[in-house]
């Protein structure tokens, strides 16, 4: 039967011999140990001092250091401490002719692999080297496995992040496409929705809106009028003033929009923003006539963004107002239609920034636009200029 890679590695590990560095200041001892351990080691180096051991370890590769405690220029304990400090990938066996409790305790604390009291038998020495080496191999194997697991975990995490990113992009793209399709029925919807989203997110960021909720605010702004799909053409596209009954039907779109968005589970948090996007600060809006801070903050921000864009964009029945004129009108409605705090935030945004935001949003809308879905020469807009109907502006 073929061996797995793990089996092969285990076999290689079992058959591997240690590379040994002997550190002892007495030449006869170094010679004896070298000869005695030669058959059970891959290679052996032998040096006389701590300094020489440091040089030898840095120059070569060793698995086991067999060090005498008493040496000139530094003890075996110093060598052990150095190995710990420099994180050497080896194990250290200490030898001594004088068993002193302080040395033993220090050796244990510094994680010496073994402590050999001279004179020791050859079997004892060989056993000590073999077991210390096997323990080192076990540690190395565990480290390799841990690194492999961490590497796999990192790779998996990156894959999940990528999948999450792609999924978000898909949602994002799908929702933008959905808005772009609304253009077929109501001209300018796509660009208006993109601009309102951009303005709303800028205002929200400026007033420290919770960062985690910003995407939902963006989606709510983008889809705010999705409920208009339930409003009949005769009302939605009517070029003249709406009757009271028609206006009631138009006013249903925030509630319908909430229902539609609620079906998209990941947008559930945007439902209330959509439902209340036509409420007024003074409670005279719709559908629930709530007022002040009862209105979700996202809806209050949206209301200003929506009005700003509606007033500064061309309509079939009038040309675009200037940003300054729109500011005056929004300021006039501060405390009645709009949240005064958000009106103040808008006042702090320079015209140049609003202009840049508009350009950016128009560009995004252009990219999302579905070609030939809504010819620019819409019969509605080609008709003679219509009078201004305030009741439907921004509806
Ligand atoms: Fe609306």
Précis, in short:
The chain has helices at residues 5-15, 27-37, 50-59, 76-85, 101-109, 122-182, 189-206, 214-222, 233-236, 244-250, 253-263, 271-275, 297-311, 323-332, 340-347, 351-368, 379-382, and strands at residues 19-23, 43-47, 64-68, 91-96, 114-117. By secondary structure, the chain is of the alpha/beta class. It has a five-stranded parallel beta sheet, with helices on both faces.
Tell me the layout of helices and strands.
Elements: H1 5-15, E1 19-23, H2 27-37, E2 43-47, H3 50-59, E3 64-68, H4 76-85, E4 91-96, H5 101-109, E5 114-117, H6 122-182, H7 189-206, H8 214-222, H9 233-236, H10 244-250, H11 253-263, H12 271-275, H13 297-311, H14 323-332, H15 340-347, H16 351-368, H17 379-382
Parallel strand pairs: 1-2, 1-3, 3-4, 4-5
Helix pairs in contact: 6-7, 7-8, 7-13, 7-16, 13-14
Detailed description of the structure:
- This protein has 17 helices and 5 strands.
- It is an alpha/beta fold and 395 residues long.
- The protein folds into 2 domains: 5-149, Rossmann fold; 183-392, Hypothetical protein af1432 (Orthogonal Bundle), CATH 1.10.3210.
- The chain has a 5-stranded parallel beta sheet with strand order 2-1-3-4-5, sandwiched between helices.
- Helix 6 packs across helix 7 and helix 7 packs antiparallel against helix 8 (214-222).
- Mean pLDDT is 88; it is low at 377-395.
- Bound molecules: fe (ii) ion (FE2).
- Fe (ii) ion is lined by residues 224-225, 253, 277-278, 395.
